[in-house]
Amino acid sequence: APVTPDQARLAGALAQERRATPMGDRLAVAHVAGLAAAGAFEEAAAEATRFADASPGLAAKMARPILLGAAESADDITFLRLVLPGRLLAPATMDPPLAAAIAERLLRAGFVEAAARHAPDDPDDPTLRRLRAEIALARGRPAEAERVLLGLEGPEALRLRARARARQGNHAAARALFAASGATLEADRAALLMRDPAALASASDPLLRDLAPVLAGPGRAGTDTPDRPLARAAALLEQTQAAQAVLARLLAERPAPAAAAR
């Protein structure tokens, strides 16, 4: 059963009685961990500060469950208050799993530089390397992201590589990598950014396939014959009307981000 705040506070009272002993240290860690598990992160942090000088190394042991719990479930304001000032634990002293959890949460919250300071640099851990690549992309450094990903395989690495190529304007390579990773929507978007009718003709989205002849332009349907100007004009008019219909569908089904957010 989950630890209740009252149970956690009882452990705190016992920790105070046995302060500066091995049992007191274990109770102090259980105390703040229980408070954090119950969502009382600020109280847990205050209690960790109160017990911090009881024994060497105790502060770090208490900080870990608070920060890990905050990274997983605290609201943004509480999480940032605990993490950004280095209030409980400096980034350099965090173990890699804790640092990675905090860096990922900071990245999601838009604190890219803080995420970079927390992200551990472990060349042997694929998960951490993918996280560092995400951060490099968020910092606008696609070439750095590709360097971090060197040698990594799998769909996630392919998608990150594709995003890096797209950031560098290489939409053809991005499309191929997105397709190889199974990210069909992203591959279709890359095909659209390529403005290549042949690429759009093989898109998974029927609307984008219909857009291919629009990008190909008028007069490519075999009607350009000098001795039949009326037929050619009629064909061009038909193509123009078809293009207008496709563009109207595209605008209706793919609204701009600002319009979609309203």
Give the strand tally: 0
Radius of gyration: 28 Å
Q: Bin the strand percentage.
A: under 5%
Determine the mean pLDDT. Answer: 86
Order of helices and strands: HHHHHHHHHHHHHHHH
Q: Name the assembly state.
A: single chain
Low-confidence segments, ≥5 residues, pLDDT <50?
Answer: 257-262
Q: Please work out how many helical segments DSSP would assign.
A: 16
Shape summary: elongated
Distance between the termini: 43 Å
The secondary structure category is mainly alpha
Describe the overall structure.
Mean pLDDT is 86; it is low at 257-262. This protein has helices spanning 5-17, 22-37, 41-51, 58-73, 76-83, 96-108, 112-118, 126-138, 142-148, 155-167, 171-181, 184-194, 197-201, 206-216, 229-253, 257-261. α4 (58-73) packs parallel to α6 (96-108). The longest helix is centred in the C-terminal third of the chain and has 25 residues, at 229-253. It contains 16 helices and no strands. The chain has 262 residues and is mostly helical.
Q: Which terms summarize this structure?
A:
single chain, 262 residues, mainly alpha, 16 helices, disordered C terminus
Gist?
The chain has 16 helices and no strands. By secondary structure, the chain is mostly helical. 34% of the residues are buried.
Write the topology of this structure.
Elements: H1 5-17, H2 22-37, H3 41-51, H4 58-73, H5 76-83, H6 96-108, H7 112-118, H8 126-138, H9 142-148, H10 155-167, H11 171-181, H12 184-194, H13 197-201, H14 206-216, H15 229-253, H16 257-261
Helix pairs in contact: 1-2, 2-3, 2-4, 3-4, 4-6, 6-7, 6-8, 7-8, 8-9, 8-10, 9-10, 10-11, 11-12, 14-15
